[in-house]
Amino acid sequence: MKCPYCGFSESKVVDSRPADEGSIRRRRECLQCERRFTTYETVESLPMVVIKKDGSRQTFDRSKVLRGIQRSCEKRPVPVADMERMALEIEQELQNKLEREISTELVGEMVMDKLKKADEVAYVRFASVYRQFKDINTFMSELNKLLSEK
């Protein structure tokens, strides 16, 4: 690890502890100038590619999943921390599948599953956009499915 102060390429780890979302915080000391600095290490993951409905491909972006969840939970009693946790869990589940190419359908179904457990209104909002409800009948059939599951 290169020292940010003098540029020397060797340092020793003084302290190491877990940080946010699976990263590791390390306190280091330069072996030349003896100044201390902090580094954060994260596990490098292979990029996932999302195959969209039109066949185009795009790198997976958790922030897009989070935005969709936030939009559907707007003015609902769902804490921001829960929304962020849902997006993180979806990303982790997808990473654990070890598939580098995933469909938007899979991502959408995972989001709906999380929202159904968190807030039914947010779930219906997301489903109405995701499944592109064309009329009131398709909307009602989704609501009836939701009611029958209770």
From TrEMBL:
Residues of the ATP-cone domain: 48-138
UniProt keyword list: ATP-binding, DNA-binding, Nucleotide-binding, Repressor, Transcription, Transcription regulation, Zinc
GO-annotated molecular function: ATP binding; DNA binding; zinc ion binding
Keyword Transcription among record annotations: yes
Coiled coil location: none
Any Pfam family hit: ATP-cone
One of the protein's GO biological processes: negative regulation of DNA-templated transcription
Record flagged with keyword Transmembrane: no
InterPro entries recorded: ATP-cone_dom, NrdR-like_N, RNR_NrdR-like
Family, as annotated: Belongs to the NrdR family.
NCBIfam families (alphabetical): transcriptional regulator NrdR
Annotated function: Negatively regulates transcription of bacterial ribonucleotide reductase nrd genes and operons by binding to NrdR-boxes.
Name of the protein in question: Transcriptional repressor NrdR
Species name: Vescimonas fastidiosa
Classification of source organism: Bacteria, Bacillati, Bacillota, Clostridia, Eubacteriales
